[in-house]
Design goal:
Largest sheet: 4 strands, antiparallel
Number of helices: 1
Number of strands: 6
Distance between the termini: 28 Å
Strand content: 35-45%
CATH class: Alpha Beta
Strand order of the largest sheet: 3-4-5-6
Bound molecules: zinc ion
Order of helices and strands: EEEHEEE
CATH superfamily: Folate-binding superfamily
Length: 85
């Protein structure tokens, strides 16, 4: 299912421009994820809001943090990874 992601640098862009980087869970939102980390492949299957990392691969090529509702794909907030709370 495609949806729009509000990139803090590029504005709203279609989801296929981005690569999913996993949910953040208990890590601080600004923490970078090891690409081989188990977190990327064994995410909690949350039904509701969660913080997630996304990479804008066909745009600004920067990491973002989103607060997304997995039931509706509604994105409540987005931050650059560097300025994420
Ligand atoms: Zn962007």
């Amino acid at each position: 299912m495609s949806f729009l992601i509000p990139c803090p640098h590029c504005g709203e862009r279609p989801q296929p421009e981005f690569a999913y980087g996993g949910n953040i869970g208990d890590d601080p939102p600004g923490t970078m994820l090891d690409p081989l980390s188990e977190d990327l492949y064994f995410n909690d299957n949350v039904a509701g809001e969660q913080f997630e990392r996304w990479f804008h691969r066909f745009g600004c090529e920067r990491w973002l943090v989103l607060r997304r509702d997995t039931r509706t794909n509604e994105i409540a907030e987005s931050w650059d990874r560097v300025t994420a709370p």
